[in-house]
Design brief:
Order of helices and strands: HH
Keywords: Membrane, Transmembrane, Transmembrane helix
Structural class: mainly alpha
Radius of gyration: 15 Å
Number of domains: 1
Largest sheet: none
Length: about 60
Protein backbone atom coordinates (compact mmCIF):
# COMPACT_ATOMS: atom_id res chain seq x y z
CA UNK A 1 0.00 0.00 0.00
CA UNK A 2 2.79 2.42 0.91
CA UNK A 3 4.65 1.55 -2.28
CA UNK A 4 1.54 2.30 -4.35
CA UNK A 5 1.07 5.60 -2.52
CA UNK A 6 4.68 6.61 -3.18
CA UNK A 7 4.37 5.49 -6.79
CA UNK A 8 1.27 7.65 -7.29
CA UNK A 9 2.24 10.80 -5.35
CA UNK A 10 6.00 11.21 -5.52
CA UNK A 11 6.52 11.69 -9.28
CA UNK A 12 3.86 14.44 -9.67
CA UNK A 13 5.11 16.21 -6.54
CA UNK A 14 8.71 16.11 -7.72
CA UNK A 15 7.69 17.07 -11.25
CA UNK A 16 5.77 20.11 -10.00
CA UNK A 17 8.46 21.22 -7.57
CA UNK A 18 11.23 20.83 -10.10
CA UNK A 19 9.31 22.59 -12.85
CA UNK A 20 8.49 25.58 -10.62
CA UNK A 21 12.08 25.78 -9.36
CA UNK A 22 13.55 25.63 -12.85
CA UNK A 23 11.00 28.01 -14.33
CA UNK A 24 11.88 30.75 -11.85
CA UNK A 25 15.64 30.18 -11.89
CA UNK A 26 16.34 29.74 -15.62
CA UNK A 27 16.85 32.58 -18.07
CA UNK A 28 14.30 32.76 -20.86
CA UNK A 29 16.64 31.22 -23.41
CA UNK A 30 17.08 28.13 -21.20
CA UNK A 31 13.37 27.34 -20.74
CA UNK A 32 13.71 24.48 -23.22
CA UNK A 33 15.72 22.64 -20.55
CA UNK A 34 12.51 22.50 -18.52
CA UNK A 35 10.91 20.38 -21.23
CA UNK A 36 13.85 17.96 -21.15
CA UNK A 37 14.69 17.75 -17.45
CA UNK A 38 11.19 17.33 -16.01
CA UNK A 39 10.23 14.20 -18.00
CA UNK A 40 13.68 12.73 -17.31
CA UNK A 41 13.26 13.30 -13.57
CA UNK A 42 9.81 11.70 -13.75
CA UNK A 43 11.25 8.63 -15.49
CA UNK A 44 14.11 8.43 -12.99
CA UNK A 45 11.79 8.49 -9.97
CA UNK A 46 9.47 5.94 -11.59
CA UNK A 47 12.47 3.68 -12.25
CA UNK A 48 13.68 4.00 -8.65
CA UNK A 49 10.21 3.25 -7.24
CA UNK A 50 9.80 0.21 -9.51
CA UNK A 51 13.28 -1.29 -9.07
CA UNK A 52 14.52 -0.37 -5.60
CA UNK A 53 11.43 -0.41 -3.40
CA UNK A 54 10.08 -3.83 -4.51
CA UNK A 55 13.51 -5.37 -3.81
CA UNK A 56 13.52 -4.03 -0.27
CA UNK A 57 9.96 -5.21 0.29
CA UNK A 58 10.76 -8.73 -0.96
CA UNK A 59 13.81 -8.97 1.32
CA UNK A 60 11.76 -7.76 4.27
CA UNK A 61 9.02 -10.34 3.66
CA UNK A 62 11.56 -13.18 3.28
Amino acid sequence: MIRNLIKELLPPLLFGTLSVFLFYHLPEDKIYLLVVICPLSYLLISFIVEKVLPDRQDKHEA
